Amino acid sequence: MCGIVGLFLKDETLAPRLGELLTGMLSTMCDRGPDSAGFAVYGSEEPGTLKLTLRSAQAGEIVDLIARVAGALDITLPHAAHDTHVVVSVPQAHVDYFLLEVAKSPAVHMVGSGRCLVHNGSLSNHNAVRRDLIRKGLTFQTENDSEVAAGFVTAKMQEGLSLQQAMTASLKALDGFYTFVVGTESGFSVLRDPIACKPAVMAETDRWVAFGTEYRALVNLPSVDDARVWEPMPAKVYVWERH
Amino acid sequence: MPIVDLSQTALRELNRSLHLLTPDTDETRWRVLNPRGQHAVAVGVDAPVVIEVEGHVGYYCAGMNKQATVIVNGNAGQGVAENMMSGQVHVRGDASQAAGATGCGGLLVIDGNASARCGISMKGIDIVVKGSVGHLSAFMAQAGNLVVLGDAGEALGDSIYEADLFVCGEVKSLGADCIEKPLEDSHKLTLRGLLEAAGATADVDAFRRYGSARTLYNFHVDNIGSY
Predict the structure, then answer these.
(1) H or E stretch including B145?
(2) A206 vs chain B: nearest CA distance in angstroms?
């Protein structure tokens, strides 16, 4: 079963530690199985930055690519043992050099809107929802159900709905079992389906909010022993936003 | 008194030591430090010992417990005391889903709240929750007693067999074939005993009893055409 984690920093002074903290959280999830693991990191969109997705078919292959990207840009990129998918913002000024460096790799592409959804569970009506979204102009790259959920939230937000409203709409529109954790440029959302078979736990301090499939993923967060720990309620949309 | 620090000792070693205990052991009190959300802490114990765990545990803590008393000074992830055969498990914090799942005996006490499916398929375990329980609690519960001092979520006792449910607070809704039943003297006696064993104070007359209407799990000749 998938393990998912999410971290929303209320206190911007923690931002330099985001990669380190998220890596720790995701690494505990890697115990659940070696198929794939990945990151998406969002922050306030600075002018002159681009968001890039790094992708590989096999866990382990991407490590070399991450190292080359990080080296080329002189930055540190978070990564975990089974990464197949990483989304990061890079300064636009570096892009020409970067694309030259990794031009031969099929594993890089730019994503438009800054939004990421991770999903533990399995949807049942995703094919019908996908057809509907394609009619609305969205494109999909896989047959995957989680991609449909991400597309649904994206479509709703493009229609002008807030993150809260888009997630609320998904309760009616999406059928199946799920825990969704969504990250946007400024927001963080958690939603469990009404039956809520998939495990979920959250912790909150005045500096951060975190989600994990297991409490184990949260234990190294700063001041976690003083955090409020709770289980998100089924069919309730939780949203935190940076203003 | 053995003290095992799980930040220094592998959980597997702790569980192995617990499994090697004999009924006449002198090591009757154990303390476990720094569980930090690990799963399967103190599972499969079969000895009359007391194990006190300092911190939050992950899934399946004290699973398959027999004879032992396991105390969690923190929260427990899903499946705490699942399949317990005898003994006692006491969670001082909250418990996640499926607490006491399919338990055959013993007593599970939760000082905080339990989330969905508390006592699912219980087979004789007694569960006392001082807070509230989530939806679908006592789903397909066969035998045993579930006592809830707080509220119960939707679909309490869905498809229930012969377990007895006692709720003091509000029941959001009842599940299939679960109905309110009279609270008789024999039930009050059982309830009083359970509350005492759990260290809970409540007036037994404030509880309502729920159980099976017995129309779902029993064959009715009128329905023969359906088979």
Answers:
(1) strand B143-148
(2) 21
